[in-house]
Design brief:
Layout (H helix, E strand, L loop, with lengths): L10 H40 L5 H48 L2
Length: 105
């Protein structure tokens, strides 16, 4: 390239260029900060839209419903098993009575 002489650039032009550059750098830094803040807000918005927040009351209601359903199923199974036990006991008595009546005519 060529050599620069004092005639090519005046001190006023250098100061003006420096001021313009500093202003542009300052504006660029502000734009970058605003962009970073907007990106953060956008990320939070997307995260909250994708992963819905469950209220504690909703979670407690679901747990209570599952617990009630489990207790109901257990109670029904106990009733069925006890009824089956009574039927088997009755059937066993009938078999014993028939066998006793056949052996003692």
């Amino acid at each position: 390239m060529g050599e620069y002489t004092n005639q090519d650039f005046s001190i006023g032009e250098i100061y003006e260029t420096t001021d313009n550059t500093e202003t542009l750098v300052y504006q660029l830094r502000n734009d970058i900060r605003l962009l970073a803040a907007n990106i953060t807000i956008l990320k939070e918005t997307i995260d909250s839209a994708i992963l819905p927040n469950l209220d504690d009351n909703v979670v407690d209601l679901v747990i209570a419903t599952l617990a009630a359903f489990t207790v109901c199923v257990v109670a029904c199974l106990m009733a069925i098993c006890y009824t089956n036990h009574l039927e088997m006991k009755t059937a066993s008595r009938r078999i014993n009575i028939r066998q006793n009546s056949k052996s003692n005519p």
